[in-house]
Every structure is written in C-alpha cells, then in structure tokens.
C-alpha cells in the first residue's frame, strides 16, 4: 500500500503573507465634516473584524457608520468614528495608537499598551477571578465582604447582570503587600467561600468561581460567560416587563439567495459598544461576517450583517435563526442599564467596595451593572442601581445615601435615558462606565 504524502505547509506562510501585504491603516479627518474616517485594508483572517472593532471601542470611540467587506482574501473596512462628545478624533496620541494597533507593527509596538484582558499574566501583580451564578439583591455586597474578610483588595472589577444571572471579573491582590497571592491554600479558601455565596440559600449548583489564566478581552469574556450560562433562554424578567417597545431590539434573519448568505438585521436604540457586542456574539457563535453596513439615525441604530457559519453553511433551520436572534438580543441587553447610575469617587482603601455595596444593600438598592477602577490612590466606583423590587429608585433613598457617604466620598447621580426620543442620541454612551484602558491606568 502506497504511503500518502500530504503537502508541506510552512508555518511561517501566514506571517510571510502579512509581511508581503502588510495592513494599511489611515485616519482621515478631511473627507467627512462630522466624523473621523478610519480605513483598514489588510489580508483577511478569522476574527479580524472583531479585533478592529475592539481596538476602536477600547478607546471609547463611537462608531456612527461602518462599511465592511471581507469576501475573499482581502479585508476592507471604513469606520466613521467620533469621541464621546460627538467630535472628530484630533488627539495625536489616539491617532498614533490606532495606526499602530491596526497597522503592520501591531504585534510588536502595541504590546506595551495595557489591554482589557483577563488573566494573571496580563495584569502582573493581580489575580483575575471569574464568577457566574444566579443574581439576587445584595449578592455583590456579599462577594465584596468575603474578599475583604480574607484580606484581598479589589483593584478593579466589571459586573454584568442579565435575565437573573450575574457574571463578573474581579481583579484582586493582597491587601498588605499589594501583590498577587500565590498561596494555594488561601486561594482555595477564597474559592470555596465565593462558591458558597453564589450557591445561596437555594443551593444553586450553577454558581461557579474560577481563576482566569487566559488572555481574553474582558468584555468578550463576560459575553462568553453569560452565553455559556444560557442567559438568553427563559422568559422576560420583572425589570424588563415594562420596557418600552422603542427600546426592544428588532432582529431578523433572512436568506440572500443570490450570494448564499444569511442576512442578520438589527434595529435598536443606539449606544456605545453596540457593534462590538454584536460582532463579538456572532464570532463566538462561530459565524463569519463577510459584509456589513452600520449606520446611526438619530437615537436609533441600524446594522446589517451578511454571514455564514465557519463551515460555509447558511442558517437553514428556523431553530438556528431563533437561536441567533435570542443570543443577539441578550448581547444587546447585557450592557444596557436603565434607571440611575451612581458614580462614587474616594481615596482608595482596603474594604472600600465592601463598604459601598453594603450601604447600597441596606438602602434597598440592587446593582444591575458595576465598574470599579483604581488609578493611583483614587478609586472610582460606578453602579447602575434599581429598587430591589424593580421599581424606580425613590429620591429619598438617594438623599439618604448622600448623607451617609457624603462625608467620605464624592457622589454623582445620573439618570440614564428611558426613552428613545431623548435629544441625546447616545445617552448611554455619555453616562456609561467604560472599562477601556483600565489596566493601563492602574498598572501605571
């Protein structure tokens, strides 16, 4: 029997192709009156669209329009972007970073920039803890108390809740040495206590705690955790029952017979990082985006994606289409927080997060999303809160909060827009907490 000889593929071939045809990136401030154009031309590769969108959103830029084409071996994108105030990007450092991060020297020159990545290796002297479980009022307070009692200091955290589930990534170090804790016994005790908290009184076995060793983008990791937890299944939670129709995403999946694509159309209220959340979800569901058109019309966003599965197939069954629709709806809602946002600034100290979350719990407030960061000696905590029963927060509670914590920290209260008719087209963008470049700030 003759031996079968497979052709040899040089592992450096892909790098050679990139060197021969390096990515071309241009930042154009002259072609459009109201936005900056970021143009990217490069060799096509799996996940490249998500990489580009991730760079732009980590800079807290707003993508107002985008045109994507990656059919065949070449990837061509044009993004219309603005800053948080709706102005062009004129900061030289930001422009330089975009060109380096997306250009031919992205791997070697941008490696020094801190990124939103989960894992011990990426955050130096900190440990990243992942937690997922059933949400309940006061859970974040209990988690914070456990960490404080075990002498762990929370340096940064990102917390999302959706459909009665909670996912969070928490960065901690030793409260005395400010270094990562390597003692396996101490880490095991912390893991066991956090698991007990997540299980709660109902003994929810779905509650999980792990120490992350990967290098996944934090926002993407939170999407992955909730997706794996199947948060897209189940009925509408109590806090979403009264959601105005204008805020509910309208998603359709149709077939483009001529070109052999499935066409996913998303229409919903515009907000920051909307495109990232959608592209992230499609990518993690093993779909490839070949063409896309993104546009914002006032407070509304319209996004159209021409996709196929990684194996080249389109979405043929109604079950597949329904699953994509549900998963995209969940991805859009995870980052949306209606109601009040509380921004608290104070000098960092051990147990600060535990103290703040305890006060919120004692005043009957449930946290739907949270961001915690520490820059030098300054700690900034942002909480999106609602009444534990799902009702609007009473102004008397806010005044009580001001009296209780006003002497130790600054408190800023913002109301997130409840109607798409708000004059601020990107209200969520202006009031949202941004985790972007967080690791760069607290590692500096």
TrEMBL record:
Domain ACT: 37-123, 128-208, 341-421
InterPro entries: ACR1-12, ACT-like_dom_sf, ACT_dom
Protein name according to UniProt: ACT domain-containing protein ACR
Listed PROSITE patterns: ACT
One Pfam entry name: ACT
Molecular function terms from GO: amino acid binding
Physiological role: Binds amino acids.
């Amino acid at each position: 029997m003759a031996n079968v000889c497979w052709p040899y593929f040089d592992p450096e071939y892909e790098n050679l192709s990139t060197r021969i045809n390096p990515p071309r990136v241009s930042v154009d401030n002259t072609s459009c009156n109201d936005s900056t154009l970021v143009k990217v031309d490069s060799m096509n590769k799996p996940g490249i669209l998500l990489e580009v969108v991730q760079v732009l959103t980590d800079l807290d830029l707003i993508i107002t329009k985008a045109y994507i084409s990656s059919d065949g071996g070449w990837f061509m994108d044009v993004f219309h972007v603005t800053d948080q105030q709706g102005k062009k990007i004129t900061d030289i450092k930001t422009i330089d970073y975009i060109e380096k991060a997306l250009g031919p020297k992205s791997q070697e020159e941008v490696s020094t920039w801190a990124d939103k990545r989960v894992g011990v290796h990426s955050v130096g002297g900190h440990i990243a803890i992942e937690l997922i479980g059933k949400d309940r009022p006061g859970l974040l307070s209990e988690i914070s108390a456990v960490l404080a009692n075990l002498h762990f200091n929370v340096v940064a955290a990102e917390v999302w809740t959706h459909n009665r589930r909670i996912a969070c990534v928490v960065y901690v170090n030793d409260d005395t040495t400010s270094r990562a804790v390597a003692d396996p016994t101490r880490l095991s005790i912390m893991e066991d206590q956090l698991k007990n908290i997540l299980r709660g009184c109902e003994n929810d076995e779905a509650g999980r705690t792990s120490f992350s060793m990967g290098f996944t983008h934090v926002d993407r990791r939170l999407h992955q955790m909730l997706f794996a937890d199947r948060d897209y299944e189940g009925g509408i939670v109590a806090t979403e029952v009264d959601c105005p129709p204008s805020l509910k995403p309208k998603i359709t999946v149709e077939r483009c017979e001529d070109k052999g694509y499935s066409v996913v159309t998303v229409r919903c209220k515009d907000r920051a990082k909307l495109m990232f959340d959608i592209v992230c979800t499609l990518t993690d569901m093993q779909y490839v985006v070949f063409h896309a058109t993104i546009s914002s019309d006032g407070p509304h966003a319209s996004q159209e994606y021409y996709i196929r599965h990684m194996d080249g197939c389109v979405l043929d069954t109604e079950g597949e289409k329904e699953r994509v629709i549900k998963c995209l709806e969940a991805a859009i809602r995870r980052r949306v927080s209606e109601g009040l946002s509380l921004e608290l600034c104070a000098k960092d100290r051990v147990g600060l997060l535990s103290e703040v979350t305890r006060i919120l719990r004692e005043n009957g407030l449930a946290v739907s999303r949270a961001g915690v960061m520490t820059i030098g000696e300054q700690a900034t905590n942002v909480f999106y809160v609602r009444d534990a029963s799902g009702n609007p927060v009473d102004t008397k509670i806010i005044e009580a909060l001001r009296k209780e914590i006003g002497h130790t920290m600054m408190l800023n209260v913002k109301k997130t827009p409840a109607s798409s008719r708000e004059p601020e087209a990107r209200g969520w963008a202006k009031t949202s907490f941004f985790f972007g470049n967080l690791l760069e700030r607290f590692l500096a």
